[in-house]
What we know:
5-stranded parallel β-sheet; Rossmann fold; 2 domains
Amino acid sequence: MLNIALFGAPGAGKGTQSEKLIKDHNLAYIATGDILRREIQEGSDLGRKAKSIIDEGGLVSDEIIVQIIEKNITTNTDVNGFLFDGFPRTYVQAYILEGLLLKLNTELTCMLSLEITEEEAIERLLERAKTSGRSDDNLKVIKNRLKEYRNKTLPVANFYKDKNIFMPINGMGTIKDVYGRLNDAIEHTLKKALLNVVIFGHPGAGKGTQAQMLAKKYNLTYISTGDMLRQEINKGTDLGKKAAAYLKTGAIVPDEIVIRILETKIKKNQKSKGYLFNGFPRTMVQAYILEGLLLKLNSSISCMIEIKVPMLELFRRLSSRAKTESKKSYDTETEAIVKRLEDYENITVPVADYYRSQSRVFTVDGMGNKDEIFLRLSEHIESAFKRAR
């Protein structure tokens, strides 16, 4: 997801620039000021509590802010991300936003700060006062708001500077010029973002073949826990010996073993543009493990691609593979095949549902020849990349 906090003193032009940003990037607009004013107009409890504070140019309590923001971010599911205007405004709110976005398994992409002089801010706000009808657009309140900004909001910049996502933007000039600078900063940030894809599908759905082709096309590090475990077995390592009994029957290898090989693979490919996971996570516990591993890289899962193939076709493919050199040890036994398919239904399908609830699942028809399926996957994965970025 693309999550932006637009920073800047009152009058810096955040509202004006937000209009085009949300349209061009399909973002939900979260402006605490606008939402609070709507609450005031509607005469809600939150509105009455906030009115006296806003009229004096003060900052509304975090308890009120959290309630209105959480409501808005959880009800916007058909967007590529969020643009926060006027939040976070304090150091405490910066931590609050971290927690709110973590609930969505995402994080702030960047904080863009529109930089203008205080003289320019006062001039713009006084000009706005002629037509706005807002009670807080007068010289006394404007100066108080600018003072509040200096004393309480500017320290937030250090929070995001420490995370290397704070970007100052020259806010002087025409609206078009300023927007160009903002958009350039966003594109620069997205180029550094990792793209992490999970390929799902029943045994026999063709994940391995397609996943390797996709990883090559999009320059992603290919990670197949099954392949890596088999390599450990062939090398005769301690991990391989522990995993051998599980792979022989097609059972799920203990997470303690899987974590170790995943950490090693990711550590060796830290300069990667992203990762393509084939066959992992297979359980909800593994889904949480993967999120933790990616969180260490300040990243998250971009999307999940699910390859759907009818059950009878899966049996046919697995039975046919048992007669080839690429057969797996569990392909030759009907009982093992049935167990693997049952495990997927009972254990792995809930993982797909978990990602589906976060609107990160793309389902692809797995019938047809290899090139036809690859074309479908490519179309979906490019759509997912645009959404993730």
